[in-house]
Amino acid sequence: MELLPHVKIRQEQFGVIIFDKETEKFFVTDEVGKDVLAAIQNAQTIDEAVEQLSHKYETSREIIQRDVSSFLEQLRQAGLMQ
């Protein structure tokens, strides 16, 4: 996953705010979204991120894969990532 260069992430108590400085669009997510974002930024591949999240949340890979795909699609639709 690659956020656009002008997109910034700000940690909050409730999760994160992902903000595009050029368009002033933003995306707010909770603690789970914060974990998903961290996993996909730190992993080598999306599959690796899914595996990490699957262990953390003790949930099947299929459910995590669906949720991560949905999260990434929301970020794309918001114009925050390539």
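Above is the first protein from milestone M3; the second protein from the same milestone is given next.
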Amino acid sequence: MDHGGAISKAVELLELILEDSAVPRNIKNTCRTIIERLNKEGEVEHIRAGAATCILDEFSQDPNLPFHTRAQVWEIASILETVKSPKIKY
């Protein structure tokens, strides 16, 4: 999966969380923030993915997060971790 594909897949999974009626509003708001961050133009993909992963890690600890959603969050984080920074040539 290329970087753009990984980001698209992560956004798709975040949108599924938004559709889940069992997910609390504050979690949905955080998902919207992550989607906006992932879709932010003018910023390189690995920076967007890294920022989103940090937010996911932080809110995956939320005790109000349903167990099935926590598994989805870990899946999304794993997908985003495949987005690597470009290799620097010296």
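Note on the second protein: The radius of gyration is 13 Å.
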